[in-house]
Amino acid sequence: MAAELRISASACPACAAMPAAEALAARAAPKEARLILSLPTAHCAACMTTVEQGLMQVPGVHDARVNLTLKRVAVAADPAIRADTLIAALDRLGYEAHELDAGMLRTTATDKAGRELLMRLGVAGFAMMNIMLLSVAVWSGAEGPTRALFQWVSAVIALPTVIFSAQPFFRQAWRALRVRRLNMDVPISLAIILATLMSLYETAGGGGHTYFDAAVSLTFFLLAGRYLDYRTRAVARSAAEELAALEVPRATRVRDGAEEVVAIADLGAGDLVRVRPGGRMPVDGVVVEGTSELDRSLLTGESLPVWTGPDAVVSTGEVNLTGPLLVRVTAAGRDSSLHRMADLVAVAESGKNRYTSLADRAARIYAPGVHLLAAATFLFWLLRSAGDVHLALNIGVAVLIITCPCALGLAVPAVVTAASGRLFRRGLLIKDGTALERLAEVDTVVFDKTGTLTMGAPVPMNLADHAPQDVALAAALAAASSHPLARALAAGAADVEGLAALPVEDLREVPGFGIEGRWKGRRVRLGRAGWIGATPGARTATWLDAGDGIPREFAFADSLRPGAETVVADLRRQGKAVHLISGDTEGAVAALAARLGIETWTAGATPAEKADRVAELTARGARVLMVGDGLNDTAALATAHVSISPASALDAARVASDIVLLGTDLGPIAGALVTARRATRRIHENFAISAAYNVIAVPLAMIGVATPLMAALAMSVSSITVSMNALRLR
Length: 730
What we know:
The protein is of the alpha+beta class. The chain has five domains: 33-104, 2-Layer Sandwich (Alpha-Beta Plaits); 113-237 and 353-414 and 698-721, no CATH class; 248-335, Calcium-transporting ATPase, cytoplasmic transduction domain A (Distorted Sandwich); 417-455 and 561-678, HAD superfamily/HAD-like (Rossmann fold), CATH 3.40.50; 458-558, Calcium-transporting ATPase, cytoplasmic domain N, CATH 3.40.1110.10. 51% of the residues lie in helices and 18% in strands. It contains 26 helices and 26 strands. The radius of gyration is 32 Å and the shape is elongated. 49% of the residues are buried.
């Protein structure tokens, strides 16, 4: 593979993200009003397609993107379009909708939905166990009044249980039927209702067969699947929201020499704000007064601070470390680089959510097929039996139950559960239901450097090369500073045996330069090369002046993350293309790439350039796995086909990723790709099992051989078979 090198200026990493973010947002939607609506009843890919296509038919709507994780739709439309118009359009499609404030981080609707599902699941489970106990007596041969008594008691338990617990399916089915559509909840609801009504009819007429246990059991297991799906989605918070949460709500504005605390929304271009040491930068701007060092790790992923002084450009979200700064505002609030990065991530997240799982694709043709078969069977037997509605309905119900999409619904979740358990034991946590399917398709892996392939913490390299007195003096100075290199030097010196502490007096930190003090009557310094009088080298280093004018270099290196060499070698053996994209300097990136055998690498990349690089690879047809840990990786993680973040990553990066690496070892990532391919094969096998089951069982039900009870048992057998096949992954 040809080596590739791209180096870009990064004086303002976050600001450099803005042009690309604006370009991507412009491609996604024209500049217009954006409305956000809550969709509490949306739950599948069919809902996503229906909502998006339906809203696009509304005059004045330019774009609509559904986020199933958050149950929201973002609409770009003409400024004249009102939320009421969109809500009415969604109501005609059968979906409840509510307008949301774009600044809200979350609502309580999803929590309420989860509690409701859990409550209905508990009621169904309790009722199912009691009806099963009563059914044992009937199956054991109870006759006459005893049999009738048990059937009526079962009816008294089952009827209110079905009415209450199956409401989520009934509501979704009714919304679909109201607008003349079909979804998977329609056959489910019909099977539950008809099984219950047939059982009541049989009980009232003294018949021999009732199916209350089948109706309630079906409700319970389907509710369990719905609740697990809800919990999976609820775990994943929006990465764009995490980024927006980093914004400082207030800032200290300076006017005519007086300071006042104001909301960020009250700031405008040209205002002056004071940022004290330890504070987060509230705006984008230019330093007017003061020198300091900035922690840009949130924006660039690099842990080493950057010196800043007059005329230096600063960005929202950076942390001021050592000295007070007076900053002239260039952008604040929604115009800031942090918000623009959040917009970039939101666009990428919405794009990835368009991925449709195998189960959803299969379900699109399954639902109408079930109804056609059941209706055709009912009509056939109604005509053949000369109008015997009881017989025709009995056989039609059997067809509905035997074709109920339980096996199809379990085909993917059962495999995902088994594979997720296997990967969890190896240190990988799957967050998204479609992540395994996408992981199986990966052919290109992109790594970040600092904090991903390396540990992101500097370690002193050459303490042994210095005299013990120099090391002790450097440690005494470093102990008085909070600079990352100073902390690393102090920690490294503490591990040196026999090192005596030196009495350094008058310690004073010089913002942006280093720390100085007096020792034996001489001024001693530890800090930047230029301040000490040394010439900076290619290595990351801090310098010591022991009062004799001779600079001493203390060099640092970032330790390699365990398993980094192994995972790159394993991925290359699997035939995957491996790339390294970092915001670090050319020398550091080139050295790491050479050490790991990565031929294609990029240095000095901004957050937007990382996302653009991933998008470029995707446009070429690559299926990209992005592995990163920083805020600067968030957009790339959301843009990639599938993504992984270490547990040590920032919250926003973990949220944007599909999989979290729980340990420090990168080795399990290569094995995860193998497991994902095997899981995909199991999913296809489960679809084949489900299809074979229907090919055999459905004709038997249609010709009247299988009763509804036999259909319920056959449906259970198919579900168990699918689950057992999935367990082979363990």
